[in-house]
Amino acid sequence: MSVIIQVNHLSKYYKELKAVDDISFTVNQGDIYGFLGQNGAGKSTTIRMLLTLIEPTNGHIELFGMDLKKHRKDILRQIGAVIERPDLYKYLTAYECLSLFARMSGIRANKQQLMAQLEQVGLQERAQSKVKTFSQGMKQRLGISVALVHDPQLIILDEPTNGLDPQGIADIRNLILQLSKQQGKTILISSHLLYEIEMTANRMIIIDKGKKIAEGSVKELFDPSSMLIQVSFANTAEVAVQLQHSKWKDLIKTQEQNNIVFQMDEQQVPALTADLVNMGAAITALQPQHSLEAYFLALTTANRHVDTFTN
């Protein structure tokens, strides 16, 4: 399996702000690679460096085995990208817009080929409609069609479902899966909508405040056999002290306000509950959290606690 993106020790500083802070990651051929982080985490900044829209402060980037600085033009010919909302000509029809961008990319595409591109994103019936009449979801799909017009190997999508309604989100999700499974495209997709990444990506990186805090396959990062259990208490401080002298001490992931989050096998939950009751814990709620969102929040919350203690 060949490596499509290799990023080593990449950083971008704006005076005292570390927008991206020494991150490294690898995207393999055929991956749907999720780039996860809250707003302001450094996702868009990293993507803009991959596309040479901004210069890194430090670090090295290779795409398709080539140095980005030395082979910029050759690399960019193999990439299609939609950064935030696509910049389209609203007074042109979808067909005219796609045709224009094809010519700008040096692609001589006939009507049949362009209509096939629009059909791929579900817009063939609106080919002669002006872009100004499109919903945001339709504009996103047209933007992806524009990004695909030169048949790139790598597709980079920055927050492609941002601002969409549930149907629009589902349409983009299905399109991403289709591009991966049917056409073998490698896709890097940034998002803060963790459920969508959980539904599509096979590998991912999680960043927070510009730093990488986890990278790997979805299965590696989120093992359903190791659940996150959030327990809420009316007497959290008293329980927390007793837990520090119990066998559950090493299973505590986070503690915040009235909640303590444990990570454990679900078969351990009854024993934990019994011990908490014996400690005199006033349990107000106990909630298992299976989702990637729970894992992400546990990691980023823990990262903020570490920064609090070290700064």
UniProtKB/TrEMBL annotation:
<comment type="similarity">
    <text>Belongs to the ABC transporter superfamily.</text>
</comment>
<dbReference type="GO" id="GO:0016887">
    <property type="term" value="F:ATP hydrolysis activity"/>
</dbReference>
<feature type="domain" description="ABC transporter">
    <location>
        <begin position="5"/>
        <end position="234"/>
    </location>
</feature>
<keyword id="KW-0547">Nucleotide-binding</keyword>
<keyword id="KW-0813">Transport</keyword>
<keyword id="KW-0067">ATP-binding</keyword>
<dbReference type="InterPro" id="IPR017871">
    <property type="entry name" value="ABC_transporter-like_CS"/>
</dbReference>
<dbReference type="GO" id="GO:0005524">
    <property type="term" value="F:ATP binding"/>
</dbReference>
<dbReference type="InterPro" id="IPR027417">
    <property type="entry name" value="P-loop_NTPase"/>
</dbReference>
<dbReference type="InterPro" id="IPR003593">
    <property type="entry name" value="AAA+_ATPase"/>
</dbReference>
<protein>
    <submittedName>
        <fullName>ABC transporter ATP-binding protein</fullName>
    </submittedName>
</protein>
<dbReference type="Pfam" id="PF00005">
    <property type="entry name" value="ABC_tran"/>
</dbReference>
<dbReference type="InterPro" id="IPR003439">
    <property type="entry name" value="ABC_transporter-like_ATP-bd"/>
</dbReference>
